[in-house]
Amino acid sequence: MSDGVLPIVALQEIEGFICATAAELAPGDPAGRDDLEQEMRLAVLEDDSLHTVSYFKRRAAWRAMDYLRRESRETSRRDDDVDVEKCLGYDNEAAEKHAAVEDFVEKLAGRKIDQHG
Question: Alpha-carbon distance 44 to 63, whole Å?
């Protein structure tokens, strides 16, 4: 592949995209933003093949979406484990949060990833 780049080169080129995406996905949550940025960087660096920068952007974005889904599920489980009212069906907040994350992930997945430059 003649137009492919190493992951470390791609990472340098898409750093702005990673920061902007994490800020969009975790507004007002510095720790969440840091976690998302690290997940996205790892997704790029775990692939040791030559690919286009666009490929690495997509890989990073998909990792962010997977991370959000995983966090949403784990939060729902923790909430359900400690909150009897939720277990009895009196409070549906955890399900609503999970659905909101899924909606946002769907929106991100449908967006053209190369828009963040």
Answer: 9
d(CA 51, CA 22) in angstroms, rounded, equals 22
97 in Cβ contact with 71 (< 8 Å):
no
Q: How far is CA 73 from the centre of its chain?
A: 14
Q: Kindly report, residue by residue over 87-108, the tens digit of the pLDDT.
A: 445 455 556 666 667 777 676 6
Distances from the Cα of 116 to the Cαs of 14, 18, 58, 83, 107, in angstroms? 9, 9, 11, 40, 15
Q: What's 26's DSSP letter?
A: S
**Residue 22's beta-bridge partner residues?**
none
Q: Which residues, including other chains, have CB under 8 Å from residue 95's CB and lie 6 or more apart?
A: 76
Q: Is it the case that residue 28 has pLDDT exceeding 80? A: yes
